[in-house]
Records
---
Amino acid sequence: MKNKIIMFWVIMAIVITAIAVIVMKPTKLGLDLVGGSRLVLEAQPTDQVKEITPETMSHLQFAIEQRVNKLGVAETVVQQVGDKRLLVEIPSVTDLKEAKAFIGETAQLEFKKPAKEEKGVITWESTGLTGKDLSKSQLTTDSSGQWVVSLEFNSEGAKKFAELTEALVNQQMAIFFDGELQSAPVIREPIYGGNAQISGGDSGFSYEEAQRMVDLLNAGALPVPAEIVEENTVGPTLGADSIAASKKAGIIGLSAVMLFMIAFYHVPGLIADIALIIYSLILFALFKTIPVTLTLAGIAGFILSIGMAVDANILIFERTKEELRAGRNLFTAINSGFDRAFTSIFDSNMTTIITCVILYLLGTSVVKGFALTLALGVMVSMFTAITVTKNFMHLIFGTGELKHPGLFGLRKDEIGAAYQAAETQREKARFGILD
Amino acid sequence: MFNIGRKHLVHIVKYRWWWMALTTLLLVPGIVAMIYSSITYPNHAPLKVGIDYTGGTILQYGIEEKITNKDLATTRANLEKEGIENPYLQILNVNSDQQQNTKSEIQSIISVRTKFIDKDSNDTETITGVLNEQYSNPELMSVSSVGPTMGKELFKNSFIAVALAFLGIVAYLSFRFRFDYALAAILGVLHDVLFVVGMFSILGLFYDVQIDGLFITAVLTVIGFSVHDTIVVFDRIRENLRYYSKKMSFGEIVDASVNQTLTRSINTSFTTLITLLALYFWGGVTTKDFVLAMILGIIIGTYSSIFFCSMLVDFWNDRQTKAKQLSV
């Protein structure tokens, strides 16, 4: 009995810790609930970069991170998945179109020289001088007060730029930004020292245009272009709707299951209900501690696991009832209920865990969330449905006498007098009555 | 000792052929739908597959008016006029108490499915424009896009996941039980999966329900649950065999075991169903089909573990005994 009281306080301590965690820690909600954008980018090989190496990927990741950070949104994620993909998550963005455009742009700066001229239309050809040769870019104004983007080349870039301007004296040199001609000044004299300016042509740049260009240039050109291969964007309204709906479904589901358990199993049912509440508290606290990002599918997994968590209790109580009907004494009936149901509970939960592991390893992030919550749920339910319920059952029915079979949802005549049968020494030893 | 002699509610062995017939009857409509779909759909899939597997883009707009099918037809025509190829439109109705919860004005959600919209395309703006003309203040609520290569990959992964789940469960069951039990459990699982897939094939034909990544998740959960249920029955058969194999025939033990675990099987499925039904009626709009797949799976999983799997074990045992008698 002493052990059981100690166990009771251990359980209480766990419950109190769980409640403290729930109160103190914030819940991490997925993008489908708070709203936000989840993009999977895939690096595209080009003529220059034919193979996507891990090095290219880390460059790409760095450049994308820089750009995403520029959006000024907290808790963004840029993470490599697989050999050539990046996962980008941007929570709570209102103008998602803009966020996406920013990431997608390759921000290619290129200097080109004239190839030939036909009827006043010049075709341009590459010079090999690109944004990669740039060390930094700044926003300034020129002598006439127009916004211009000033460029500072690195040593190699400065050398290339000098050679190029030497060769192009009295000719035009074009500056292309993302494939668009920005300006094509005539080179009066060779420029040494590695400084240049881009002006916005005849109409000039607006402040925003110039600033954005500077940001993009400083973020560095992407080593290879990146294509969006998957996108999931959810506006804040839909997310709020989903949270409200899930809460409601969860509360209705939980209450209905609890009512059912009391109606069918009476006192043990009530104990199972308390175990179920403890289960929900521990699981929710675990979600916050790990932390597990709760998505809509994850919440569905959580709610589903409530229905499945009582399974172990149903198995145990059915067995206990059977043993009582067979004339066992209450204490033995309870113990063998737990004892005999255990292999079933363990084996069946293992198969659920096997499928969860597979889902977790192979699934997309939505599926992963579901698998993780379900697997955690199954493991926690083994503890609450077995350890917690057993402890409470022992504390309440510890005397070993069942005066009112109705407490178990049984009729007196179903049990007969047999329930008072004395246990044999062996059975007592087996189920620990002697302790 | 136990209520092994209690009056049985269900008789597996006695009505074996009836259960076989009922099982067939349950599976046939779905199989027919799958064959019909494979022949008629352009991609020869037995199910209507969503963008997760084919690639494509789904835009969801919240609308402040109640939308009818007639409105939708107009929208479709307008979209086609603007050069959107084969748009696929659907109405998701927002239930009224969900509105009270969030105080949102949105009555209906229109979901527009098109081919994959890449970053250089202006299709999103075009679609938003068309909706803007027809409805007041449509709000773009969500965008999901899957590139064509990604779709193929996801499909491959889902296939591997289901295959691995089967293998993992067979391995575990063979380790814990006998191999023939594992085989019966797996046949039960196949039966359940076939039923759910068949039902979704029918839903695809009549209600344009499409399967996505979540559907595969639901199927895998059903696999887990179905085996879970079967194990409880088998575990009981195993236990009873230990005590009664000398006094009772195998068939009698199977019958007794099924009846002993009957209340539990039904109660567990019932509590799980309660939570699923709550999710179906009050939960998020986007997970409805996912929940429906699980509801169907859990009902059929309970049926199969009570009637189908135990019947298989008994059937198997019968044939083995007969074979033994012949060889003697």
Note: Chain A has three domains: 2-29+235-430, 36-105+226-233, 109-218.
---
Amino acid sequence: MKKVFENKYFVIASRIFLGGLFMYASFDKMANPQAFADIINNYRMLPVQFVNPLAIFLPWLEFITGLFLIAGKWVKSSLLLYSTFLLIFIIGLSQALIRGLDISCGCFSVHPSTTSEVWLRIVEDMFLLFISVNLFKYLPEDKLKTENSINIT
Amino acid sequence: MSKTTLIQAGWILLLTLIAGIFFNLSNPNRIQFIGDEKTVDFSTSDSLLNALRVQDSILKAADSLKLNSDRRNDSLEFLNEQRVKDSTANANKLDSIKHVQDSLKAVKQKTEDSLKNLQNQLTEISKPVDIKLDFAKALFDKKYKFIDARDIADYDAGHIQDAINIPYHEFDKYKDRLSSLPKDQVYVTYCSSACDVSIDMAYAMAKMGFIKLYIFRGGWDEWKNAGFPAN
């Protein structure tokens, strides 16, 4: 496992795959914040006051972490945030599945016709989380520019 | 996990915050930073159901009153004719019979007026009202129209019998269909149980001028579980 996740080409491919997926997922949500807020509300997990802020900022978090992953900058911190949010998505979807809520996932599109099986989305997210966590685990530490410059001097 | 990673994560969150704020402010589809709670009058559901039952019993009572009144009128007229024939000396009694007849008519008129008032009180609702399953079924039995606010795929998978599908997410597309409906009729909006589009739909309809709107928040899930008529 370690060998695979330390392979240079595998790491690049995984970064582009995860980053691209997150960026793609963010576009529709950014364009239609109200529809995304309705979807978050349907999960019945958050007080109504937290729904709109999440609908505004979550797509941007997806977009920015995706961008950093593809660019290869601040990869570890992006993976940390990425993994945290995948975990939250899995918890949200699981509680909806257990409670029998008939909801639209809102994972890649805010349009209700894209509704898919919730359990399938959970499996997908678990797969992404597996890649993300292992990349985080085996990737060497990013250094801040300031630290690098100190070391050089 | 190093301190560097945490600091960078903090910067990413800050970037997200700034980008989110600026984008939302410039977005034509922007939303409020703190959303308003969608509220409906939950408590009135039971009283409305009771009112509907009272309305039914009053209508029945009015029917029987009308029947009795007609019978009395017939018998009074018959009596009247008999007495006119019998003797002109009974003119005074005839007056009293007419007096009774007039007062009966007045009572009948008052009953009809109060019935109309009650009906208006029951159905003239400017603000949509939330209802429970039993009241929704009562309205269904009275052949009132149900509006399914879910998307077409969900509607096709199953819906309340004879419900009209107007997906709220494509409201503008279906606005013409709504415009063609009479605005003074009773309508019940619903979606599935875990959704708010039934509320949004009812309020959008209220803005269009519909005045008798109910929201069945239990929706399709509750209706289906109860085994009520469905397509």
Note: The radius of gyration of chain B is 29 Å.
